[in-house]
Amino acid sequence: MKKSDIKIDSIVGAKSDEEISKPFEGKVEKIYENSVLLSITSYEPEDETNVSDLNGKIVVSFKNLKKLAKKPSKQAETPTNEIKISKIEAKDDQQ
């Protein structure tokens, strides 16, 4: 992929032979001279530990980027705090 084809906030497909074993997708956060900083948006389940170790970000060379052609396999999950509240009804034990 050429530098001129890449825009900030665009989603691209990428591969990294060293860090992540399978192809993944990421959002372009910053463009450098020969590479980009990606925020990883989707990846294969077996790469979950590596993505976590990278804090969801990776620098990838332009030659390892491609335009997207398929649906992502797993969305990166942003941790959330969920609170579930349920009403407990008092039972009337009158007979």
UniProtKB/TrEMBL annotation:
Residue spans of biased composition, Basic and acidic residues class: 84-95
Origin species: Lactobacillus iners DSM 13335
UniProt protein name: DUF2187 domain-containing protein
Origin: domain of life: Bacteria
Region (Disordered): 72-95
